[in-house]
Amino acid sequence: MLAGCSFSSSRHQMSTAQRFDILPCGFSKRSNRSEGGGAPRVAAGDARNGGGGGATCSFRAHPAPPVTQAVSWGAKPEPGGNGAGGVWERSSRAVKRAHEEGAGEEYGGPVVRAKRTRMGGDGDEVWFHQPIAGTVQAAGGGEGEEPEEEKVFLVPSAAAFPHAGPSLAAAKEEEFSKSPSNSPASSGGTDGGSSAVPPPEQHARNGVPAPGAAGREAMELVVALTACADSLAARNHDAANYYLARLGEMASPAGPTPMHRVAAYFAEALALRVVRTWPHLFDVTPPRELTDGAVGDDDATALRILNAITPIPRFLHFTLNERMLRAFDGHDRVHVIDFDIKQGLQWPGLLQSLATRAIPPAHVRITGVGESRQELQETGARLGRVAAALGLAFEFHAVVDRLEDVRLWMLHVKRGECVAVNCVLTAHRLLRDDTGAALADFLGLARSTGAAILLLGEHEDALNSGRWEARFARALRYYAAAFDAVDAAGLSDASPARVKAEEMFAREIRNAVAFEDADRFERHESFAGWQRRMEEGGFQNAGIGDREAMQARMIARMFAPGNYSVQAQGDGEGLTLRWLDQPMYTVSAWTPVGDGGGGGSTVSASVSTTASHSQQS
C-alpha cells in the first residue's frame, strides 16, 4: 500500500495512499514505441480540427534568441496576453524587448515573462512564484516585502505548451470507458495498468468516500503526470505537449492539496526533461539554479524547518548518535568524520551525551567535509562554543573538497583514536558512477581510517536503477508521502516555512526525474541495495540495538501521532522511518570485515593543500 498526500472534503479525509490504491501509478505497456513519437494518448486531433485530422499538439519552431544568455519558460500568461509559443526571461530588459518584438511577430502575440517575488529578510528570504507571492501578501499584509525580482519557476503552462481541444477530464473519461480496467476488481494500483480515473460510484464500492472538486482534480493530476511520463518514455512529444499544458493549468505550488503542490514540481521536472530530450525543438537554456544542483543556504534552512515540524532529521541524527556512543564506549580519544556535515545539526547532541558520561573522553575531534569554506568555518565555530560550554576538549577540522576527491591524508586521523565515519544522505550521490568505482573508493577510504563503525542514513527508495517510467512512478509515490508529511505539520498554505521545506524536496524531484547519467545524483537505494553494496565493499552489518530502536520510536511519536512509525529491517539490521505505509528513511551501522577498528592511521598534519580550520577549547 502506498502513502502520500491527503486532501479533505467536508467530513472525510482521503490520502494519496488511498488514491493510489484506486488509481494505478504504473504505465501501460506499448506494443509499438517509435522514435518519432506516435499519436497522442488522447484523440484530440479530430475535436480540435473539426475532424480534419490535422496536426494538433505539435511544438512550434523556436525563434533563435539574439544573444546566448540563460532564458526561462513556463510562466502564467500575463493579463491581456493571447499566448505565445515560447516564454522567455532575460536579465537585460533591452534584450527582452528586442526578443519580444521578434517573437511577437512570429507567434502573433506577446512574450510572457516568468516572475517570482522574494519575501522575508535577515537571511531567511523565500522565493515565490508571482501568484504565490500575492497570496502571501494578502495573508500577511505585505509587511517586509522586498522589490520584485525576476527569477524562474519552471512550471509549464498553456502559454508555453499551446493546445486546444477537450478538457483532460473529458479525455480521461473516454480513456476509462475504453479501458479493460474499468471494473471494480481491476481498480488496484499495479505497474503497467491503466491510469484512468474511476467514477465516484466506484469510490463507494471500494469503501473510500467520493472526493470533492479539489480531490477529483488531485487524482486527475496523478493521471496526467503518469500519462505525460508514459508519453516521454514513448518519445511522443505531441502527447507530452498536451499533458504538460494541462498540468500547467491545474498544478500549483500554492495548490489546495499536497498533491497539487507535488504535481507542480513534478511537472517542472518533466518540462526540464522535455527540453533535454528534444533540444532541437526548444531553444531554452534553463537557469543554472535549476540544473547545477547548487543549493546554497536553501537546504540548510529547509533542514532546520524539517527538524522543527517532522521527525526526519531527529530520527536520522539521534538514532545514529546513540549507535555511535555505543561504539565509543571505553575509548578516551574519539574522532567523528562527517562526510557531509553542512551545519552540524547532528553533533551538539552527541557532544552533550559525551560530556555527561561518568568519565568524559579526554579529547573529541570532529572532521567535517563540505564544499563551502564559509559554512565549514561557521559550523566549526558553533560546535567549538558548544564543546566549551560543556567542558570538553574539542578540535574541529574542516576539509573543503568534493566527497569523491577526499583522501586519507586530508582527514588528519591520529593513532589511538576511535574513529566513526558518518554518512547521512550523501552516499547515494556516489552511485552516479555506473561502474561502482566511486563508492568502492569511498568504502576503501573509510576502511583505511581504521574506523570502528560506519553509520549510514539514506532514503528508503529505489530510484537508482531500472526503467525510467518505473523510477518515475516510485518517485511520485515517495515524494507524495513527503509532501503529506510536511502538510501534517499544520502550516498555512502561505507559510514561507512550508514553501522552503517543500522546495528542498522539489530539488530532489527535479534531479531524479529530469536528469540522467552523471548529472543525476539523486540515486536513492533501498536497504537491500545498500546491504549488497556494503558487503561487496568489505563491510558487515553491525546491527541497531533495542536502545536505538526505543529512542527512534519515541521521536516518531512526537510528530503527527499515528502517521509516523519505525520498523526494523531484518533482525535488527536497520531501522526505517515510515509515513503511513510508505518507507521514508533507513539508518544502519557497519563495521569493516576482519578489522577490530578503534585505531587509525597516523597522517602527517603538515601537508595541507586542502583548506582546514582547527579550533581548541
From TrEMBL:
Region (Leucine repeat II (LRII)): 378-410
Annotated signal sequence range: none
Keywords in alphabetical order: Transcription, Transcription regulation
InterPro entries referenced in this protein's UniProt entry, alphabetically: TF_GRAS
Motif VHIID: where in chain: 334-338
Stretches the record annotates as Disordered: 29-54, 169-212, 595-617
Low complexity bias spans: 178-188, 602-617
Ranges where the record places region SAW: 514-591
Region (VHIID): 303-368
Similarity comment: family membership: Belongs to the GRAS family.
Protein name: Scarecrow-like protein 28
Species for this entry: Panicum miliaceum (Proso millet)
